[in-house]
Specification:
alpha/beta; five-stranded parallel sheet; single chain; six-stranded antiparallel barrel; 556 residues; Rossmann fold; 2 domains; 15 helices; L-fucose Isomerase, Chain A, domain 3
Length: 556
């Protein structure tokens, strides 16, 4: 008889009937976890009081780590150990987020959890807890995990506690999403429908290449589209390496890179520079960013890419300055010309090379569709994703509408700014995220009419939500208040969603990102929305329209 060593499975503690376990998922970067811990700790204290008032006990499933100076789960391995040894799989479980979090740290445990699950975030712009929660929600939706979600500025507020009580007692809570209408119930104009269908057919026939510089940025499981879903649309991935981008950047001459900077400064971009590499944006950092811009275009040309995405943070951040300046510039029609290696061609002349920040492939597919529909319709083609960072009522009295703070982590195309390149500046990325620095592409988005959208994976199906919004102009003081409440180095958009309240948006949106594009006017934006919606439907997506037109008119 063989003497095998039979492994002993770790035993997890059994939660009490009134116990509610709490998991705090965090960043992969120690510096970010340490700096953001105070906000998380304060949130947990408020949440514990709310849970207690409902007759339950909030219990942390993992300890504060004195040596690390925070209580976050900081890696996938740590998360696996927490769920294997400390989480009762049948207990009520809250993932509480006041910060950005890497969803893959805990996704494995949530996939197998049997008890009621809720994601909860504080309504604050200080650290991107809302962004983190929306990313986790999108990842859970893609993974077919059942969950409830809650958010609040004040966990003592009656409305929040009522919904919390529902979840604690019943194991689920639902929100109204009556602002969502299936495209199948909407009458689409013949011209827009035919254009959308023709663009979808063209894409399937001719195909497009999505260049991806390393997948899986920052744990965003929701940002990866399976090849089996993407390929039937006519879109294929060219999986590229960030090490190749780094190498190619080192092969660009100083002369070419200085020419890129000179072009930007001639157009009005202001670089906010200093001499301290650790805290300031320096000339050396800008030079390397300009080299990366040239390298990205040449690699995209090498592989015949119609769009590209750079991972943006992990990996490259330890080698070279941030890619923000590159990303926003690529998404602009007016940008420094770059010649092919043999000097015979200007690459992607007179148009953007659509770039999807943080290699969010859902945003990338959306950007490709947006570019093609708007180009065919003679509308502005510059598009970008933003973080759904925060929102607040306007304190200046300019508008009585709820105004969202859309704030991507580094750059948008200057065509979106008031003043274009002249309204743009470049400031050093925060050192806690980017030790090698690098300049952002910062500005205030101009007033106008936009279409917002989001492609997401729900189970094993691609879906698309679209809506209309307006960008409003706020006084400098109100803009600065919002910047200081979030990240002042980053570009900002003051957006008012038509027919979609704050809570309706949060209840429906399945991603940390939102795609935006301008149109020449309200009616143009309505038609562009319909054309892109028709294209998505013809590509096989389940399409929904959210909210209303600018005048409050329903889509049906």
């Amino acid at each position: 008889m063989s003497d095998y060593r039979i492994p002993t499975l770790p035993k997890t503690p059994k939660a009490g009937k009134k116990d509610v376990l709490l998991v705090a998922n965090g960043d992969l970067r120690q510096s970010a976890n340490q700096k953001c811990w105070a906000a998380q700790e304060a949130m947990e204290q408020d949440l514990a009081q709310a849970v207690s008032s409902c007759g339950y006990n909030l219990v942390r499933a993992h300890p504060y780590k004195k040596s690390d100076k925070h209580g976050f789960i900081g890696s996938q391995r740590e998360g696996m150990d927490v769920f294997a040894r400390m989480v009762d799989p049948n207990a009520r479980l809250i993932v509480a987020e006041a910060v950005w979090q890497y969803s893959h740290h805990i996704l494995h445990g949530l996939l197998e959890h049997q008890g009621p699950l809720a994601t909860i975030a504080n309504w604050s712009g200080t650290w991107p807890g809302l962004v983190g929660m929306l990313n986790l929600n999108g990842s859970l939706t893609k993974a077919k995990v059942k969950y409830s979600t809650l958010w609040s500025e004040d966990f003592g507020e009656a409305g929040f506690r009522s919904k919390l009580q529902q979840w604690l007692d019943r194991g689920q809570v639902r929100h109204r999403t009556n602002h969502v209408v299936p495209l199948s119930k909407v009458k689409v104009g013949s011209a827009e429908r035919k254009l959308g269908e023709a663009l979808a057919a063209q894409l399937r026939r001719e195909k497009a290449i999505m260049g991806i510089f390393d997948e899986g940025c920052m744990g965003m499981y929701n940002a990866i589209i399976q090849d089996e879903l993407l390929n039937p649309l006519g879109v294929y991935k060219e999986r590229l390496s960030q090490s190749a981008l780094y190498y190619e950047s080192t092969q660009v001459s100083d002369r070419e890179a200085k020419g890129v900077r000179r072009w930007m400064e001639d157009k009005g971009l202001q670089f906010r520079t200093g001499r301290n590499e650790a805290t300031d944006l320096t000339d050396a950092q800008i030079l390397m960013q300009c080299k990366m811009y040239i390298a990205a275009l040449r690699i995209a040309d090498d592989y015949g890419c119609q769009l590209i995405g750079i991972q943006y943070q992990q990996g490259l951040k330890d080698l070279m300055p941030a890619s923000d300046l590159v990303e926003g510039t690529l998404n602009n029609s007016r940008r420094p010309p770059v010649k092919s290696r043999d000097g015979r061609r200007v690459l992607y002349r007179g148009q953007p090379l659509p770039h999807f920040n943080e290699v969010d492939e859902c945003a990338g597919l959306d950007a490709l569709m947006t570019f093609r529909t708007h180009k065919a319709m003679g509308q502005p083609v510059e598009t970008t994703l933003h973080d759904v960072r925060w929102g607040d009522w306007d304190q200046s009295g300019t508008t009585d509408q709820y105004v969202w703070v859309l704030l991507i982590s580094g750059s948008v195309p200057p065509a979106h700014f008031t003043g274009g390149w002249k309204g743009a500046s470049s400031e050093r990325q925060p050192a806690m995220y980017f030790p090698k620095g690098g300049g952002t592409l910062k500005g205030i988005s101009k007033p106008g009419e936009i279409v917002w959208s989001r492609i997401f994976v729900d189970g094993n199906q691609l879906k698309m939500d679209l809506g209309r919004a307006g960008v409003v102009k706020l006084p400098a003081e109100e803009t600065e208040r919002r910047w200081q409440a979030t990240t002042p180095q980053w570009p900002i958009m003051h957006a008012v969603t038509y027919g979609v309240s704050r809570d309706q948006f949060m209840a429906r949106h399945k991603a940390n990102h939102i795609q935006v594009v301008y149109a020449k006017g309200a009616e143009d934006a309505d038609r562009a929305l319909m054309a892109k919606a028709s294209m998505a439907q013809a590509m096989g997506m389940t399409v929904s329209l959210c909210g209303t037109k600018k005048n409050g008119q329903s889509w049906t």
